[in-house]
Amino acid sequence: MPSQRVRVVQGSCWPCKKRRVKCDLAKPVCQRCVAAGASCDYNTRLIRWSTRPSVALADASALTSSGGGAVTSPGAASVTFAAAASRAMRTIQRPLVNDEQRALGYFQGRVWPLLTTVPDPCAPPTPFAMQHRVVMLSMCVFAASHRYLQDGRGEELITPARSECLQVLRAHVDGVCNKRSDMLPTLLFAVLLLYLHDGFVEGSATSATLKHSHGVLAILAQLGGLPAVIGRGHESMDMLLSEFASTDLTTALLQERTPAFAPDLWPIIDKSSVWWGRDPLGRCSLAAVFEDMAALAIYHDELRSGVEILSVDRVRDFELRLQPIYAPLTPEDLDGTGTGSPETTTSSPPSTPAPGDIEAVEAFKLVRAFQQTALIYMYRVVCGLSAYHPLVQQHVDSCLDGLFEVPRSSNIFHCVIFPLYVAGAHAQSPKRREAVADMVGSIFDDMRFGSVRAIGVALRDVWRGDPDAMSWRTMFGYLSPYAVVL
Prior knowledge:
Blueprint: E1 11-13, H1 14-19, H2 31-36, E2 46-48, H3 60-65, H4 76-91, H5 98-111, H6 126-131, H7 133-151, H8 155-177, H9 184-202, H10 209-222, H11 226-229, H12 235-255, H13 266-270, H14 286-305, H15 312-321, H16 331-334, H17 342-347, H18 355-382, H19 390-404, H20 417-425, H21 430-447, H22 450-464, H23 472-475
Helix pairs in contact: 5-7, 7-8, 7-9, 8-9, 9-10, 9-12, 12-14, 14-18, 18-19, 18-20, 19-20, 20-21, 20-22, 21-22
């Protein structure tokens, strides 16, 4: 009768060993087995773990609890998120394979921060993905495609992940058709991610961006409209919806059509979690600019259909509302004690700006860029002015000057593509065009989104012709309709 083995090193339970995952050594049963639904025999059969170095894989529990410093909300939000993640881990029906673990970690650490300008954005929908496989597969498709553009690895993972995702998605659609309305929020999460993936990462003729856009609108209609969804679920859902509404608006402006969301919905969107950063003092709002841009698009459609006639007073009203704003002077600036006064700059070293000051400056820069872009659209499309008209060029120059001042390390650097595309297409001098091309290249190097590369190609096509003789539709017709611009 052999003597019972004495455990002298950290080991593993047998189910974890069979699944080739790292056992967490928790007693009386390991949480890896609990999450996978396996029967843990931790106390009956102890297996020594191999001493060979293993591939560094993201722990699923760490993905859903910590989330990395760059993408986890501070304070109480982190505690709530961790609690939700813990519940999700206990309800998952199948263990994550290594590729899925790696994809979730990549999505959270690399992709999610690219979708927002906020320094501390809301947490990604990882707990939701752990509970609903269709959401997890959508995130895996997003991560696999972006990783291939990033470093050229993992191309073989894209097609299988996408095929499985679409298969599960169709099953959910069939469930909705069979009166299972409880599946609609899950379906909305997945289709939103696929829409952003196809529009941002791919943006090619083979993308299903338009179909996913129609799918999102159909699901929202079934749920009672955007106001019935905003603020009712996870923060990440609100942020993705703000991203969808923004890209629908910019696409509508480029294609001269009416946006899907009415102007009065933007104040409702602004009350929830959004992709853009806010001024801490509430002195400016990008949602207000989007509201005016949507009103401009509707006014243009009314002019085109003959419902309205061009009114100088209406144009002047839009000019007044879209007048570029700047941060007002503070009392410290007025009494000479601010950081920018001559006394402080000569007698003492410049002080480091507070985080709130940086957020305010970036918020005003982003708002100004979109205001000037909206004015370019108004003069070109609504008023019918040529590309090189002085009124148009006035705002083209101001917009480009402001964009060129945005440092590459800024949080808004990768979210000024729409203003850069519109103003850059109207640039006259070769020097400005070269600067625009360099900035587009820098943004692509940082983001690795296929839509950014497509914008660079479209700009060169515009510059090869005569922009002053081009209509708005011709100028922006070089870009694929499946690419999303923001």
